[in-house]
Amino acid sequence: MKELNTPRELARFKQRFLGFVLLAALITLIAGCHAGSSRGTASEGTPNPPSASGPAAAVQTTVYHGKGLVKSINSQRPSIEVDHEDIPGLMPAMTMEFYVKDKTLLQGLKADERIEFTIENGVGGLKITEIKKI
Length: 134
Fold this sequence. Notes:
Distance between the termini: 71 Å
Number of helices: 2
Number of domains: 2
Structural class: alpha+beta
CATH architecture of the largest domain: Beta Barrel
């Protein structure tokens, strides 16, 4: 191996070494994510959504179901803030604001009401498409 005689050579070596380390970490992360997504099922037995590639991946919509407590409603956005339980295959329990597909879904809802909802993850991001009081 060549000796690093100048500060500039040492700096260039450190930069390249760091680049290789970051590349190796990225490859390991991607391989781990890919291996984790091929396990077949998510928590509570909900199947993982099928993987799409190419143009189909750009327009793929995945549907999930959740339950939660209405915290607030904003009919101008239109959106709803929900303190929801785990949404299997999508996210853990948390309080979050979601856009709704149609503001008529918000009619008759009030804070502190329990709901079941259907949420789609598609081209426009997460959007609630159905709400039912429980």
